[in-house]
Each structure stands twice: as C-alpha cells, then as structure tokens.
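In this section we walk through a basic example: taking a raw amino acid sequence and producing a predicted 3D structure, encoded as discrete structure tokens. The instruction is simple. Fold the sequence below.
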Amino acid sequence: MLINSLLFALALDILKGASPVAFAAALGRDDWVLMAAAALVVVGHIFPPWLGFNGGRGAASSVGASFALLPLTAGPLLAVGLAVLSAMRNTSIAIAVFVVSLLLLVVLTGGDGSRLAFAIALFIAASMKDAWDRVQRRRSVNLLVVN
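The resulting token sequence is shown next.
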C-alpha cells in the first residue's frame, strides 16, 4: 500500500513537471517559454507558498520537465532512472545516472544542446535542494543532541 502511494505521488510529480512545458510546446511557443515553464514548475515544487516555502526536492518535477523538453531522449531514460531509484533507494544516485545517461544520449543523437543544458541545470537545482535539506536535518539532530 505504501509503495503504491509513493509511486502515485511520484507519477503526479513527474506529470506536474511535464504538463506546463508540454502545454507551452503544444501552443508552439519559443524555447525560452518552455524553459521558463520548466523553471517555474520546479521552483514551485521546491518552494510552495502554501507549505511555508518548504517543499520537495524538485527531482521528480525536473524529470517531468526534462521529459517534456527532450521527449525522444528523456522518455526511455525515465525507466532507467526509476530502476536505479528502486534498486539503490537513493535519489541522488538516480538523478546522477539519469543526467549522465541523458547527456550521453543527447550528444549521441545530436539533440538540442540548449534544452539539455537547461535540463541539467534543473537537476543541479534539485540536487542543491537535496543537499540543503540534508544539512538542515543534520543541524537539527545536532541541536537535539546538544540540548
């Protein structure tokens, strides 16, 4: 039951990242509009105002945005990233595998370099949020031990 709930939340977060970018692409907007939509959806996931600007890591919404920015290359890699995540149970490793695989596949297929660079920037932001959360957790544990 818990696994089903987690997978459902993951699927929703990926869709949340892909939907605005795919919608902008369907309207025939320029690349800067697609990238702005991707950035805003990830920032909105990381810093939602209704949760006191303390949200998730943004990794799943970055995957969704990457999928919409680079659909032919990011699509197959979604399965690779999910397989690594389920095997390793570590989002940082899964993100790294996804990004390196995405980089290699876009370079090998001659894909759009600017979209690739932006997708990698989204994952860097998600990784920075993850690192920040880890520092904050360690700091709160250390404060509890000291007090």
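Looking at the output, two observations stand out. The mean pLDDT is 83. Residues 2-146 form one domain. In the next section we compare this with other chains.
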